[in-house]
Hints:
Elements: E1 4-11, H1 15-26, E2 29-36, E3 41-51, E4 54-63, H2 69-77, E5 80-87, H3 91-100, E6 111-112, E7 118-122, E8 132-136
Parallel strand pairs: 1-4, 5-8
Antiparallel strand pairs: 1-5, 2-3, 3-4, 6-7, 7-8
Amino acid sequence: MFLRIDHVGIACHDLEAKIAFFESTFGMTVVSREVNEEQGVREAMLHVADGPNGSSYIQLLEPLSPDSPVGKFLAKRGEGVHHVAFGVPDVAEAMGELGGKGIRLLDERPRHGSMGSSIAFLHPKDVGGMLTELVQAPPPRT
Ligand code: CMX
Ligand code: CO
C-alpha cells in the first residue's frame, strides 16, 4: 500500500532554531518553507534521501496558534515526533481502503500538503498511538 516513508513531522516552538540545528547537526538542506493556514502551521521540509519510489524528508512544524493541532500537541507533550507520513500512489483510494477497514479518517477529502502534495490524516488512536498522514506527490511538471 505504501511507497515509502515520505516524512516524519516534528513539532517545535522555534522553527528557525530547529532548522539551524538539523542543518548543522545532520547536514540536511531545507527544500521548502510554507505557511499552511488550513493546518495551522509554519513548516519546513528538510531533504533526507532519494529512493526508487521518491524522496524522504523531515518536516519541522511550528504552530500558528496555541489552539491548532500542533499547538495543542506542544502544550500537552512538548517538542518531538508529531506524525509519520507514508507516500501512497492515490490518496483518495488509500482513504477509501483504510476507512473500509474501520480506521477513522480525520479528513473527509484530501487536503493541500507540502510542496503541492495531497494529504489526509488517520486518527492516532486507531494506529497504535501514531498520528498517520497519507501523502500523494503532485504530478510531475511537464
Ligand atoms: N500523535 C499521537 N497521539 C496524539 C497526537 C499525535 N500527534 N495528537 C493527539 N493525540 C492523542 C492525544 O494524546 C489524545 O489522547 P488521550 O485522549 O489519551 O489524551 C487524543 O489523541 C486526542 O487528542 P487531543 O489533544 O484531544 O486533540 P484533538 O482530538 O483535538 O486532536 C487530532 C487530535 C489528531 C485529531 C488532531 O491533532 C488532528 O486532526 N491532526 C491532523 C492535522 C494535523 O496534525 N496537522 C498538522 C500537520 C500538517 C502537515 O503535516 O502538513
Ligand atoms: Co506532515
